[in-house]
Amino acid sequence: MYRHASHLRRGLLATAATLVLATAAPALAAQPLLQAEHQTYDLKAQPLAAALAEVARISGRPIVVSTSLARGKTAPPLKGRFTPDQAYAALLSGSGLKLVTVGNNLVVQPADTGVAAPITGESPAGDAEQVAEVVVTGTRIRGAAPAGAQVITISREDIEASGYATTQQIVQALPQNFGGGANEATTMLSTRSGAGSNTGMGSGVNLRGLGTTSTLVLLNGERPAMGGISGTFADLSLIPASAVQRIEVLPDGASALYGSDAVAGVVNVVFRDRFEGAETRLRYATADGDFDEVQAGQLFGKAWDSGHLILAYEYHAKGRLAAADRDYAREDLRPFGGGDYRANYSTPGTIVAGGRTFAIPAGQNGVGLTPSQLLPDQINRRDARLNTDLLPRQRRQSMFVAAEQALDGKTTLKAQLLAADRRFNSRVMNVSQSAVTVPVANPFYVDPIGTRAPVRVQYDFSQDLGPMALLGHVRAYNGVVGLTRTLGDWSASADVGFGQQREYSRYDNYVNTYRLGLALADTNPATAYNLFGDARSTNPATIESIRGWSANSGLWRVWTSSLRADGPLFDLPAGTVKLAIGGEWRAERFKYGSLTYRTTAAPAPSSSLYPGARKILAAYAEVRVPLVAETMGVTGVRNLAVSLAGRVERYSDFGTTATPKAGLEWSPFQGLSLRGSYGRSFRAPSFADQRIAVGYVLYQPIRLTDPKSPTGATNVVALVGNTADIGPERARTWTVGFDLRPTWAPRARLETTLFKVDYRDRIGSINADLLNVLVNRALYTSLIENSPSAARLSELYASPFFSNPSNIPASAIGAIVDSRNTNLASVVETGLDFDARYAPEMGPYRLELGLSGSYLFNRDQKVTPDAPKTDVVGTVGNPVDLRLRGRAILSRGSWDTAAFVNFYNHYTNQTVAPAKTIKAWTTVDLQLGYRFGASTGPLDGVRLALTASNVFDKDPPFADLRVNISGVGFDSEAASPVGRLIGVQATKSW
């Protein structure tokens, strides 16, 4: 549908892209998708307290105001782009009130008070209250920033400026996020970091490259249902980007506050649940007609004296991106200087007999084929990648509903629901091809060596059946209902929630080997299967009879409930000590089943016996203590505060965990703030990690090469699958950083953070290197049990998990090799995050410049406790050492222009010998926008934007990669194959 866009539409888009380039080129610079100093406000005249609360919500900058001071005052309309302090000042203009900075807080006082701010941080009126109870990711205390931590905020303004249509695109642009793991681009191209479990073609988050299972994703602070086999990641592709207010990213361990998975960090998606009015959004984008994207969204928001309601709907669709449309997406990479990874399967096929190969000639139908026509010692190969898709066709509908109603002056009822439905379809490679035995009775049988014995034929059935198709359906619901009660200066809340994500996927055009065997044994030339000619040389009805398929379904459910409270404890000379406490209960369950029609006469069901419901009970506490305030006059200390947090969790399946965290922030003088944190985090083992069942756990005698054996080999019992005592993965995290806002350049800012993650007890196995275990004994000492006792062997041989196809007796076993998944690997990663920005005064113009990035010093990895550490930074499957994202935004009046630069450093392809360098990749994104004013009549409130991602159409750098059973010429974990994507978007505010 979308690939056949008209030439006129393409011409218009190309012309528009030229305009973007011409307009935006002078503004090229660098800045990340971080919250800008300036935000766009469009507020009507309203009560002062409500207006101040709205600015606090949008900016994330808390403010304290006395109820008596704000009562009866009306704020003027606020429209334009301002810093938080400028916005507050504009609202207070003419009110007889002023802003005073107390510590890190803004306090409203009478303009004529003449009284210095009190050291307690309270206003002279004595009844101060925090207007916006903003809770920032990384702390449970309202109105406070997490001490010692840096929170990256992608604001609504940043989302609009980026030109991205989906939530996953927005998050993937962060330098701290690695593209490996579960996302639609890695499906069928990688199995690392949970990519192989992504049955629903969703998209997760992989901060620091530590895996999608090591990043916690929250929706308005609540855990959602999970996606993938056994719930390996939170699926961002289901979240409507048009309903997102901001995305807060804490790139630091935070299990002390949030529990499992918060090892690399936390990503909290905050919705526009305070939106008022209506907004309509339409978008179309195309990559030269090879790939198309359509988006439509509608928001409605209504507020009244005691509550508010928002309804949001979004439709997003994109067409498939065919591998044939990208030259580098192929198996035969010799034209690019790479290898030839084509398999020995083609149509016509290749006969294997007597240890030799005989290629079947093309251009004939297999009838009357003679041995003399065969091509001895040759193999027919076909590039199977060319008939597949790099990106699937996707259709997604999402709805978000949120409501809040005050029941009385102190109690508020809240509810929210996110529902999403996504369907996908993709042509994928068949990873289960094998040679087929043709009996002598087959009417098309050819005997190349004259033995009159069955022959094996390497045949590509995709030319008969069509390419293998993966199609599926994902449906998810996440809802929360809660009550909040004001208890003096304290606030308490109780919530209950439920989440469910159901995934269904089906592979079509498999070969049903049972039906194929019958067709090959058929002696009737009219109905027998013919493997000796060109494609479709067989009767169409016979071809249809062997068509098989496989269907899978997974269901993740989560039930949650929580009680939490926070407020002041007591006052110190530097301010108020605040405490947050809470308790949580959660139950999780995953079910999986399949129905296959590949090897049997009729579809055969099967179920996977995953563990039952897991129940978690947790309690946490966090305290923030201000030690020194500016008003105390302490030399060398302008402000000093510490935070302490701890959490204890009881898991029904593996026991108890306890995780502490401490944070410190110190400002020696105005303009400089130093911070640091230390904490412990963990990741609970998944249901797949804990699955113990026949067919999933295997004890099998095999013969391994052994240089220390007189015979050169030793019989061992290999233990494969999971261990019964798998425990949580554990980590220690440290951060040290500073925020610099020089007084001589108040519109400049620099933030840096040094971090270290010591991640141990990671769940993994040595199964991939099982055949070389005895060759590398020193590497795997702890996993080898030499000369096991007769009792130990007797126990293994009697186990229901035991299988002995080679009939090796227990008396011949010399060792036991444990290649099961267990807590054995470790990773130590250190690096530096940074963000520099500058917004100079330019009269009627507003310009913002900046640069952010992440630099990794090392990533030392050990596959077992005995193994030497290996630094894998900048290698395939791991993050590069340097990643940058820059931004320049220039605006005046109704016009705005944004330019982004994305840099991904060069790295090493260690999967080939000798290792090769994959070049660095730099792309540029541009956007030109115009907002119509009131004088334009029906266009009032309309903003038109023209976007161009990868505007110079830079191909991904060539990578000579062997992936799964195939090959491809680019790294899907590091680069997008889409190319230049030009889009037009219209947004109407009502």
TrEMBL record:
Chief subcellular location: membrane
PANTHER family (alphabetical): PTHR47234, TONB-DEPENDENT RECEPTOR (PTHR47234:SF1)
Bilayer disposition of the protein: Multi-pass membrane protein
Subcellular location as annotated: Cell outer membrane
Residues making up the signal peptide according to the UniProt record: 1-29
Residue stretches spanning the membrane: none
Similarity-based family: Belongs to the TonB-dependent receptor family.
Gene Ontology process terms (BP): iron ion transport
Gene source species: Caulobacter segnis
InterPro entries: Beta-barrel_TonB, Beta-barrel_TonB_sf, Plug_dom, Plug_dom_sf, Secretin/TonB_short_N, TAT_signal, TonB-dep_rcpt-like
Protein name, UniProt field: TonB-dependent receptor
CC terms in the record's Gene Ontology section: cell outer membrane
Keyword Cell inner membrane: no
Domain Secretin/TonB short N-terminal: start-end pairs: 61-111
